[in-house]
Amino acid sequence: MNFSKLKILVIGDVMIDSFIYTESYRMSPEDSSVPVLTPNQKFFTLGGAANVAANLKNLGANVDLVSIIGSDIFGQSFLNMLKVKGISPKKILESNLVKTTLKERVFLNTKQIYRLDYEQNLNDSFSKLIIKQIKKISKDYDSVILSDYNKGVLNKDTISFIIKYFDCPVIVDPKKNDFSIYQNATALTPNLTELEKATSSSLRSNKSIEKVCNSLLHDFNLKFIVLTRGEKGISLISKDGIKHIKAFPIEKPDVTGAGDSVISTLTLTYALDRDEVFATKIANLAGSISVSKTGTSTVSINELLEKAKRNKVKI
After folding, report:
1. Percentage of the chain exceeding pLDDT 70
2. Which residues are catalytic?
3. Is 7-25+37-310 a CATH 3.40.50.2000 domain?
4. Is 51 helix (H, G, I), strand (E, B) or coil?
């Protein structure tokens, strides 16, 4: 499996993920119910659409990334982190009207105790700016990924334009409750909670999942849906029916960023031969590798090959 000749464009909401690990040996003298935390480890990773790009790069593909960040200290840190990963920052827009998103997670020992989000959702006035940036880009891509974290880069106008503009598969990781906004995309990769919210349904059986997904395929002209279901694995719903792929058992899984690894491997494998069944099987492998790691992480081609060999999955 060789992704080195593939060229993928990622468009979506980017952010920095921060992880602070602490210990506590005493309670606060100001409030006896509050522990005093002593930080012992802190690190930053690319998050959101940038983590999708990092996964693609780590898997050997050629990657471009379009998004918008603030002209602030976090924005500069973000650009430096891109360069370290070997991802070009040239297509990233900067604005002093935007605040770069930072998600700061604090752990006491190994348990996450809270998260601070420094963010600003973009209003629709930025749509023209984003579309203008996309128009400057060549259409010569094997696939486009829309990594929607619902922060404003992707809205009705930008999504509709992107899907019409590019003559290649457009795979979407959806976060909006109205899936009609993704009409005419190639595929969606929601998790079960996102699908239930979008369809106002309680999906407790394979039959109910197949029914609502078939409606989405028909109503919004989608080719297929890849539904991530946690410990129940992944389900592929297409015109050929529904196929369930079992999860690999992982002790104490960490789902942070796992969807980014899933959509990255799904997109690359589908771009090779347009086989959604095989692509979903490989995405399931990648997801299991991702959740076995702590925090926002990427999956490498060597990890993928090793996992496939260990579990007798033909690649």
Report:
1. 100
2. 260
3. no
4. helix
